[in-house]
Amino acid sequence: MAEELHYEEFSSLIAAIHGDMQKLKARCTARLGFKSVHVFWIYLLNTHPEGLSASQLARAGGASRSLVSREMHELFEQGIVYTVEGGERRRYGWKLQLTEKGRRLAGVITAVAGQVQRRVSRGIPPAQLTDFYRTLRTLAGEFHTLAADEQLEEEMNQWLGK
Questions:
Q1: Do 75 and 99 meet the contact criterion of CB atoms below 8 Å apart?
Q2: Angle at Cα 114 formed by Cα 111 and Cα 116, nearest 5°?
Q3: Tens of pLDDT along the chain (162 residues)?
Q4: Interacting residues of 51 by C-beta distance below 8 A, sequence separation 6+
Q5: Is beta strand 96-98 parallel, antiparallel or unpaired with respect to 81-83?
Q6: N or C: which end of the chain has fewer CB within 10 A?
Q7: Is the pTM of this model over 0.90?
């Protein structure tokens, strides 16, 4: 029995989910007056009260450290984040934390994210969701490993008969 390929369905579903999530994020972030990356960083910092460095934020969000450095100033100016070490000039590796204003905003973001999550997963048993996320993490890890595989080009040539 031949293995059933799910490439088209998988790709289409992932792309559709990503597109719809981007639309939802855009609606929410516009109402909050922040960019999508800001909202994600605020959410992350709220889940790490000990603080995160710019590098850690970049890694967690799949962004470059330079993007974090460029964009973080807005959150400083609005009194959303501060550096644990203090001082006028931020240094590489300093931990960023939320101010009280930032924590209140994070509470709103978390509540909205929770409402969205509950809405899209309603009717799905918790055990099924647990299995789904475990499988999705496994797939993400495998895709990441495959994308970083330097021998992939050679294997593709073999697959294509070149």
A1: no
A2: 110
A3: 557 888 899 999 999 999 999 999 888 888 888 888 899 999 999 999 999 988 899 888 888 888 888 888 899 999 999 987 755 455 567 899 999 999 999 999 999 999 999 999 999 999 999 999 999 999 999 998 988 888 888 888 888 887
A4: 45, 84, 95, 96, 97
A5: antiparallel
A6: N
A7: no
Question: The domain at 9-122 falls in which architecture?
Answer: Orthogonal Bundle (1.10)
For the chain, give the DSSP string: -PPPP-HHHHHHHHHHHHHHHHHHHHHHHHHHTS-HHHHHHHHHHHH-TT-B-HHHHHHHHT--HHHHHHHHHHHHHTTSEEETT-SSS--TTPPEEE-HHHHHHHHHHHHHHHHHHHHHHTTS-HHHHHHHHHHHHHHHHHHHHHHH-TTHHHHHHHHTT-
C-alpha gyration radius of the chain: 20
